[in-house]
Amino acid sequence: MPSTTDDARLAEDERRAEEVYDRLIRPVLRPEDEGKYVAVAVESGDFEIDADDYAATGRLLARRPGARLWLMRTGPSAAYRLRTLVAARP
Questions:
Q1: In a domain, 47, yes or no
Q2: Predicted model pTM
């Protein structure tokens, strides 16, 4: 279970990523980008857009190794958010 500090860090990462999305990404999106994944390096504001989430994060991590990333999708709000990693069940 995340601590309060982890929750605050996640909230700050989310705020930064959404600010980058609104300021830098939304203005350059095209209709064909609807539903694509956007990976944002929260500390630098760098981003990648791709239909494949793994490709977007891979390209971004190649440029910014070790960066904290926030992944979102373009278009209408997502149906859910994932905030913690859940261990696989046996």
A1: yes
A2: 0.77
